[in-house]
């Protein structure tokens, strides 16, 4: 069953990648040809164009020019360094910077989902692990793992790998992978606390006493800390990545906590239907994720509960209008197994979710290729 499930999942991922590539590429062609002055490009380049947009330009700039920081303005320091470094490494092999970014995501995203299946087998029986993998593979915003020049695929691969190694008892390697992961996205508290809580829980499940070595997961923060040291040395501002958020109107404070911007846009402005529906979608997904955190504690244990609570909670509190949450939730991978466990006796509901997710993957890929702001 395990080999059959892996093959089936691989085929589903391949189909999803191809569908997203076609929809995104066709949409990029349509967007490109709105401009009669647009230069002619090769057919294969439209696929890359369909996967490059919005934050991709920041990663391109970092890979090509390095970091810059202007207090109070949008600055590249808001984006963590691991993904641009990976792009630069692949670019050295011959592809241009955009092709390199797409290749990094294409390599990491599908591999992360296959690795998720292996991890899920440690926490549930085979059929449920497979169902959870399908829920992740066909989650609407998972198209960001199928080629989009964003860092989510790389981070997910690393963090799933870290927890998988932890389940296998390879503490040192898990901590190492966790440390690399915290250099990819600003969610170090979730990774560190999640790995630490799971390690202590893992030892307790085996009836073993804790030792000093069991607290090694705190070293997973090294990737995050090294980036802070770099920012301090380069710009004299170790928290420049957080300060730069002001450039996007994401200042910390009660306005963000209370989501006043969200309420204003949705209920009291003349925003168009696309903007309102987009903000409502991200808000609903955030609410759904928060609802799943409680069952995750009960069904998967404190380690994964803590990881999801912190990973979902930080952006849910700090974002001004929930924008981007749909994509951020991909990294809360245990929630997909929790959902599969809750839907164990509701196959039709699960099938409906998968069908909606598959259609949404294609539609969101097309929207991204058309340069709509998705997440």
From TrEMBL:
Q: Which Pfam families match?
A: Mannosyl_trans2 (PF04188)
Transmembrane parts of this sequence: 97-117, 138-165, 171-197, 209-230, 275-293, 300-319, 325-343, 352-370
Q: How does it sit in the membrane?
A: Multi-pass membrane protein
Keyword annotations for this protein, in alphabetical order, are: Endoplasmic reticulum, Glycosyltransferase, GPI-anchor biosynthesis, Membrane, Transferase, Transmembrane, Transmembrane helix
Q: Which PANTHER family match?
A: GPI MANNOSYLTRANSFERASE 2 (PTHR12468)
Cellular component GO terms, alphabetically?
A: mannosyltransferase complex; membrane
* Highest taxon, organism lineage: Bacteria
Task: Give the metabolic or biological pathway.
Answer: Glycolipid biosynthesis; glycosylphosphatidylinositol-anchor biosynthesis
Organism source for this protein? Answer: Archangium gephyra
Annotated GO biological process: GPI anchor biosynthetic process
- Subcellular location per the Swiss-Prot or TrEMBL entry: Endoplasmic reticulum membrane
| Molecular function (Gene Ontology), one example | alpha-1,6-mannosyltransferase activity
Name of protein = Mannosyltransferase PIG-V
The answer to keyword Zinc-finger applying to this record is no
Does this UniProt record's set of keywords contain Transmembrane helix? yes
């Amino acid at each position: 069953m395990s080999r059959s499930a892996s093959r089936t999942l691989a085929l589903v991922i391949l189909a999803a990648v191809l569908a997203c590539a076609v929809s995104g590429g066709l949409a990029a062609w349509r967007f490109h040809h709105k401009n009669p002055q647009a230069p002619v490009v090769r057919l294969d380049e439209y696929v890359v164009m369909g996967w490059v947009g919005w934050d991709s330009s920041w990663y391109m700039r970092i890979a090509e020019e390095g970091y810059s920081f202007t207090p109070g303005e949008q600055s590249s320091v808001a984006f963590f360094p691991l993904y641009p470094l990976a792009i630069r490494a692949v670019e050295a092999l011959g592809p241009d910077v955009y092709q390199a970014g797409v290749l990094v995501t294409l390599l990491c995203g599908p591999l992360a989902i296959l690795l998720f299946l292996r991890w899920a087998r440690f926490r549930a029986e085979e059929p449920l692990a497979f169902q959870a993998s399908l829920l992740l593979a066909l989650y609407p915003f998972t198209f960001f793992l199928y080629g989009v020049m964003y860092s989510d695929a790389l981070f997910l691969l690393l963090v799933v790998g870290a927890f998988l190694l932890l389940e296998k008892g390879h503490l040192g390697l898990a901590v190492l992978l966790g440390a690399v992961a915290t250099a990819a996205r600003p969610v170090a508290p979730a990774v560190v606390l999640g790995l630490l809580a799971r390690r202590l829980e893992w030892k307790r499940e085996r009836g073993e006493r804790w030792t000093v070595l069991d607290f090694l997961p705190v070293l997973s923060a090294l990737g995050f800390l090294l980036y802070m040291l770099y920012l301090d040395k380069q710009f004299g501002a170790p928290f420049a990545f957080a300060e730069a958020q002001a450039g996007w109107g994401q200042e910390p404070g009660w306005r963000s906590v209370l989501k006043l911007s969200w309420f204003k846009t949705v209920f009291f402005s003349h925003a168009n239907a696309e903007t309102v529906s987009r903000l409502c979608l991200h808000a609903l997904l955030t609410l759904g994720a928060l609802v799943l955190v409680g069952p995750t504690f009960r069904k998967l244990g404190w380690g994964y509960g803590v990881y999801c609570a912190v990973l979902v909670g930080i952006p849910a509190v700090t974002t001004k209008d929930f924008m981007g949450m749909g994509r951020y939730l991909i990294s809360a991978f245990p929630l997909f197994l929790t959902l599969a466990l809750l839907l164990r006796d509701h196959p039709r509901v699960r099938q409906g979710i998968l069908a909606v997710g598959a259609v949404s993957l294609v539609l969101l890929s097309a929207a991204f290729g058309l340069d709509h702001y998705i997440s």
